[in-house]
Amino acid sequence: MAGTSDVATEKCSPAESLGVMKLNDHKAGMQGLDTAKINQIIEEASKGSQFYQHKQKNQERINAKIANLKASCAKLSEEQKKLGRAKMDSLARKLELMRDLSRTIVHVDMDAFYAAVEMRDCPELKTKPMAVGSSAMLTTSNYHARRFGVRAAMPGFIAKKLCPELVIVPTNFPKYTEVSRQVQKVFADYDPEFSAASLDEAYLDITDFLIARKDAGAEMTAAEAVEEMRAKILESTQLTASAGIAPNGMLAKVCSDKNKPNGQFVLENTREAVMEFIKDLPIRKISGIGNVTEQLLGSLGVGTCRDLWDKRELLYLLFSESSYDYFLRVALGIGSFGGDGSERERKSVSCETTFRSTSEHEELCDIIRQLSNDLAQDLERLGLTGRSVTLKYKTDKFDVKTRITQLLDPTRDGAVIAKAALSLLPVGLHLRLLGVRMSQLTSPAVTGNNNSSRKQRTLDELLLAAECPARKKRKLDAQVSNSLTEPDPTTTTPLLFTCPVCHSWRTSDGEVALNSHIDECLNQQVLYPETTSTGCSSSQAKLDRYVIRRAK
DNA sequence: TTGTGCCTC
DNA sequence: CAACGAGGCACAA
């Protein structure tokens, strides 16, 4: 919700690079507005500012990229295209084999969450256009405000020009966190392992819940279950939620937007239903395709998922492996990972702050020291130390740079972090933002050899157990999958596992050998697809991981 | 490894 | 007057 996604920069001719600031109006509650008038006001308020100039420069870079892409495209021979199409068709067959229609995934999204909470707690606001945030930036707006073009990721002072009577309420994170906890309690009734994507959004797999109901003689449809869940959320929080029900997270997310607010949408678990749904879907609706990707693909004539399929040979020939793999998954309506909110290990911790632009060295040093102390506290709270310190800074022209340095030993000492970060600070620049990040994280609480990933994971589990059982479980799952490619050095017994395709037992004789074995199996499966129908869902999961590794 | 860019909420 | 903050991943050199 609190989107930072840049205001949609719709296609604009290179000649007049105006329109860089255009309103992003393809979200819920924004249909049928006088966008011309709104855009004019936004343009007016932005023109000439450093931010605006930065946006323009950025758009020019994108335009150059597009020109490049088009040039490469024009050079392609028919021969190459034919080959590219064949490659993609082969990949598509593999993906098709892994298509899993056995699960019922739900994406739940609270409606205008922060704004809804504030309206609930202050009824006078209900009839007024209001937004949560500050004059510098809004995180959410209510539906009344959206009629004026006021939306998340818009600076409050511009929103005021669009809607002078707009009430701006400051954010109250502790409150939203508390409400979020209540909502998540309801989620847990339907999937104890649900995965929270943010305070107001989560992915649930209700397959087992539905089976349990049926076994108990109280069968209900997915739609009924989700209606009930949303009613429970309303009851316990007085807030409405929208939901999407689909065979995978990627599609469920799109579906939850369909009948927003206070609605839901079911996509049947059949290939036909999925392909019909995906056909005319604008690619921008898919999580992971943002402003830039939309423009790049748009320049190739790709606007919908069907276009993605029709032009698949171009994707293969012009983009990286992980990109065309992802695009093909989208074109086929097959979920990918990460986009479905699966839990991941934390890789970094950071603090940053924006301030009135200055070039005063001592002032900047003070800010870095402050940030370093804040970061040290966060690390302390999380029970982590780290070995890499990154300094991030943004100039008054909005250019962002990062510099990184390695420490000799992992630390969470604020003074040590500050010293490292200060050494990265360039002199004589006008800056408006500074940030300090710690990465290469390790857990220091293990005495002695603190680099053992085995011990680290164990400790993470202990820490996680305190906060959320579902997360703990997911971590353990991740650990199991890791053992597939990273044999635990502390054990001497060789690991055994079954090939997800042929189900034969294999020893862990290395990732390469394993992958080539699976490749062989898959190729055979493509020739004899009928043999795959027996594959159970757990082998599906392993296959998914296999593809992740290959894509990398 | 270092640094940038894109993307998400 | 005035355009966030935190985090992950891909990619290139």
CATH topology of the domain at 105-111 and 174-269: Alpha-Beta Plaits
CATH architecture level-2 label of the domain at 105-111 and 174-269: 2-Layer Sandwich
User: In percent, how helical is the residue content?
Assistant: 40-55%
Give the overall average pLDDT: 80
Catalytic activity: DNA(n) + a 2'-deoxyribonucleoside 5'-triphosphate = DNA(n+1) + diphosphate
Organism: Daphnia sinensis
Cofactor: Mg(2+)
Keywords: Coiled coil, DNA damage, DNA repair, DNA replication, DNA-binding, DNA-directed DNA polymerase, Magnesium, Metal-binding, Mutator protein, Nucleotidyltransferase, Nucleus, Transferase, Zinc, Zinc-finger
Question: Topology, please?
Answer:
Blueprint: H1 35-46, H2 50-75, H3 78-98, E1 105-110, H4 113-121, E2 130-133, E3 138-141, H5 143-146, H6 156-162, E4 167-169, H7 173-190, E5 195-198, E6 201-205, H8 207-215, H9 222-237, E7 241-246, H10 249-258, E8 264-266, H11 271-279, H12 291-298, H13 305-310, H14 312-318, H15 321-332, E9 348-358, H16 361-382, E10 385-395, E11 400-411, H17 414-423, E12 431-442, H18 453-467, H19 469-482, E13 496-498, E14 505-507, H20 511-527, H21 537-551
Parallel strand pairs: 2-4, 7-8
Antiparallel strand pairs: 1-6, 1-7, 2-3, 5-6, 9-12, 10-11, 10-12, 13-14
This protein binds a DNA duplex (9 and 13 nucleotides) through helix 2, helix 6, helix 12, strand 9 and strand 11.
